[in-house]
Write the structure tokens for this entry.
Amino acid sequence: MSLRDTLRILRQRGWIALLIAILTAAAAFGFSEMQTPVYKSTITLSISTRPDWGTSQAAKALLRNYAANMYSLPWAQQVIDRLQLDVTPEDLKSRVTIDPDETRFTLQIDVKDYSPELANRIAETWAQLTVEWRQQENQRLLEKRDWVNASIIEPPKATLYSPQTKINTLAGFILGTLVGALVVFGLEWIESGVVRTPEDMERFAGLTVLGAIPTVAVDGTGRATQRARTRPQ
């Protein structure tokens, strides 16, 4: 198919692809607007030790252990008790993710909830429990230089996690455009063998149309009209 044919198809049937794209984008937008918003609150803990390579390496190795301790049902129960939440530890734990970063010596806590305020409170309480836990563990050590401290870098801030209405709408428009293009070129392929005009005959048969034999038809008023029947020469 040549570029000329492609442009001709788009001129004749491009509105079909555009209509499908608009309808698909509208459906994606409507579906997104119907969803209940979910917010994600993020808080980051800094894990610090004395500037010694051996102690730093030990703290790096312990980061995953810290994350495992924090991401546990007893820890979730402590958060529930402090905030007096009406949820089970399993339910609360399913809303939380903890990601240790060994290169930056940090622990990132993410909490998802329908309420941005509650998500912030859960994240901050979860982090505060970690700070208190490290303080208690440090008091058991004889040497202060062996302490591993945890501190909150900055207060949590909740942002919209889902739905991503703009992204969903754009994705719907792109998908609709692709589907519309398939429909347009599918219709063109189905009708590719139908000859309606002299141009169709020239394109289909590869011959030059030198003349046309008119046909007579009767319109709604009873008057005869002429339509040209193509005849290749």
Remarks:
- The first strand starts at residue 38 and ends at 48.
- DSSP finds seven helices and seven strands in the chain.
- Confidence is low (pLDDT under 50) at residues 228-233.
